[in-house]
Design a protein that fits this description.
By secondary structure, the protein is mainly α. The protein has a single domain, classed as Aminoglycoside 3'-phosphotransferase, Chain: A, domain 2 (Alpha-Beta Complex). It is 55% helix and 9% strand. The protein has 13 helices and ten strands. The chain has a three-stranded antiparallel β-sheet, with helices on one face. A three-stranded antiparallel β-sheet has the order 6-8-9. A hairpin with a 4-residue loop joins β2 and β3. The longest helix has 28 residues. The protein is globular, with a radius of gyration of 19 Å.
Length: 342
């Protein structure tokens, strides 16, 4: 059961209030996805049983024996690439069905209006694309945020806000980090023909926006996990290489599956290049704000040893710096190269 009354809803360390309308948006997009996915809905989404608009509460399937994808990425039991492939396919199917190049312009206008989600969008604009960079000198004085870097961030900010790129938009989860994905792997699914199971949850930040937003948000968790694993296993070379390699493979599998389905569905090469470039941008923007201490209580890059923690933060921010600029010429390859070098 999930309830979203006004009086208990806050976001971030400043206690920013959240509107209760967010639960209506969550139910709305779950129903939209159900319509899009059809018979495949149960492969990606929990069942929604009941919604009470007056009390802002819904009842959905209890995901017994599932764990957050966060959990698997932060431990030594990183999920195999099957999980990543399924997430890539989920994003592709939902993006493709609503992509601005594939649907009537009138429907684009409807989706843009229905999923503007201004209250929660403004929260993301502040916390993901603004606040962290205003306070960067306090968190990491050695990290360079100059005019060129801010230009990159501001271009992503404008895309997220729907100010540019109307030809390359889709209905997005809006906050599809690994804490918004439930996974069931191992012996509990060994007899299942479908293998590892994934369920996408908490789409309350849903927007009609750039498709790279969802891919980037998800991959940010993989990147942070890879950096974390490289320092958590610094004294065990074999364990470190195994963990980082598995995570890097997951990123590749996710992107390749997504890209294949989108291209088969008729999304142009030019749009796919833009989605790839923006996916990397949105990914490292999220890595950046996390490394700078603006992502709440996430597990990533948290070490008791002060020197290890600082080294991990520097490593993450080096990836941010290289990828934010390198994405324009190298696309996803800049991420793969950075993670291979950990």
């Amino acid at each position: 059961m999930k309830q979203a009354p006004e009086y208990v809803a806050v976001f971030g360390p400043d206690g920013l209030p959240l509107t209760s309308d967010r639960i209506k948006k969550e139910v709305q997009i779950l129903k939209e996805w159900n319509s899009i996915l059809g018979d495949d809905t149960d492969k990606y989404l929990p069942k929604l049983y009941y919604f009470d608009d007056d009390n802002k509460v819904f009842v959905m399937e209890f995901l017994e024996n599932y764990d957050l994808l966060d959990h698997y990425l932060i431990t030594d039991s990183a999920p195999d690439s099957e999980v990543s492939a399924k997430l890539g396919k989920f994003m592709a199917l939902t993006h493709l069905a609503t992509h601005s190049s594939k649907v009537h312009p009138d429907l684009c206008k409807v989706l843009t209006s229905q999923y503007e989600n201004r209250a929660l969008r403004d929260i993301q604009l502040e916390f993901v694309f603004t606040k962290a960079y205003q306070e960067v000198s306090e968190q990491a004085p050695w990290f360079k945020v100059d005019e060129a870097f801010l230009k990159e961030v501001n271009s992503l900010k404008a895309r997220y806000n729907g100010e540019t790129g109307s030809w390359n938009m889709a209905l997005c989860h809006g906050d599809l980090h690994p804490g918004s994905v439930m996974v069931k792997v191992g012996s509990s699914v060994e007899s299942s023909a479908d293998g590892a199971q994934v369920r996408v949850i908490d789409p309350e930040f849903c927007v009609y926006g750039p498709p790279g937003l969802d891919m980037g948000s998800l991959l940010s968790g993989y990147i942070l996990a890879a950096v974390h694993q490289s320092f958590a296993n610094a004294n065990d070379k074999e364990a470190k290489e195994k963990a980082v390699s598995a995570i890097n493979k997951g990123i590749k599998e996710c992107w390749e599956t997504y890209s294949l389905v989108m291209k088969k569905g008729g999304v142009t090469k030019g749009n796919m290049t833009e989605i790839e470039t923006e996916s990397v941008g949105f990914a490292v923007a999220e890595v950046c704000r996390t490394a700078l201490g603006h992502a709440g209580g996430r597990l990533w890059l948290q070490f008791d040893d002060k020197e290890v923690k600082e080294a991990a933060l520097k490593s993450a921010l080096e990836i941010v710096q290289k990828s934010m600029f390198g994405r324009h010429t190298e696309g996803m390859d800049v991420l793969f190269d950075c993670l291979d070098a950990l």
